[in-house]
Amino acid sequence: TRIMLSGIQPTGIPHLGNYLGALINWAQLQDDASPEGELLSSIVGWHAMTLPQGTHGIENGHNDVHVWIRYEEVFSVYEQTSRLAVSKNLAEDAEMDETGLNVGLFTYPVLMSVDIALQMHVPVGDDQTQHLELCRDLADQFDRTYKAKHSLFPLPIALTSGADYLFFFISKPPKRILSLRDPTSKMSKSSPDPASRILFTDSPSEITSKIHHRSGTANLLTILAACTGEYVHQIAKRFEVKNYGVLKSEVTGAVQEISRGPRDDYERLKGQKDYLLKVAKEGAERAGKKAEATMRGLSCGGLHSGNP
Ligand code: TYM
What we know:
This protein is mostly helical. The chain has helices at residues 16-29, 55-70, 88-96, 103-117, 129-145, 204-212, 217-228, 232-239, 244-269, 273-300; strands at 3-8, 38-43, 79-82, 121-122, 157-158. α2 packs across α9 and α4 (103-117) packs across α5. It binds ligand 1. Residues 5-9, 17-18, 21-22, 44, 47, 112, 115-116, 122, 124-125, 127-128, 131, 176-177, 186-188 line the site of ligand 1.
């Protein structure tokens, strides 16, 4: 079976961009009955070290994200891996770097490539395609350096909007969701303005107020299309003759609807720390076995003997 891998940083409560860009597809892909293979979802603690974070920040962030991913389990049991192995000292070092420019940021794409290199299909939002390209380049470079007879690493394929036609099981093409405050940048957890993003812990009235004070019509159309599964141009046509207020109300309703389930599950699971850790540990063991199998393949076959 095909193995798919994706990841999210433990840097806070996931937002609407994470959901519509990537997580919405995880729910389908992790389904045991999915003919497409098996999804490994990871919480990538090391990746969070590109910005100074308090140790508490990362630990809480891990729980927040994990709880949220567990929501998907209402659909099926799936493999879960946690890579949160951030040592306290390391995290504190990162925090001491006042410029915020640390080696974590510099080596980030390589770290991500290592995750991916041992797996294959990668359901991510389209902001990640550049990282996947680098990963493909590194895999290719490795093959050439070691004069491999055939490709040693499975070349990773991004499952994003561009590629989704290949994967019929993705019913909702991932979208790039932009900031509600500044439509020139993407919605992100790290923006200092909390009104720029919708979190899955937001109440219906918070959602209403964030959308009503937003800027960027195109972004509203994208959000609505991602929620309903329609094409943006269909929606744009539908709203041609309607006024702006109607569009805002419809987007508000769709976002409230889509976030209700995750919010309820978050409330239900957020206190269950032991249970979440157990799931993460078991998942990490399973994922480790799969990565080992790839490593064994690397050392037993494929490589010419001798120095590169
Ligand atoms: P991260 O934690 O930034 O985001 C998690 C997922 O959410 C998507 N995403 C968005 N999609 C649409 N619009 C947005 N505004 C938006 N913001 C975030 C991202 O595309 C991503 O799919 N480098 C990764 C984590 C990672 C990873 C991996 C992913 C580490 N190793 C291996 C796949 C495979 C990241 O920082 O995601």
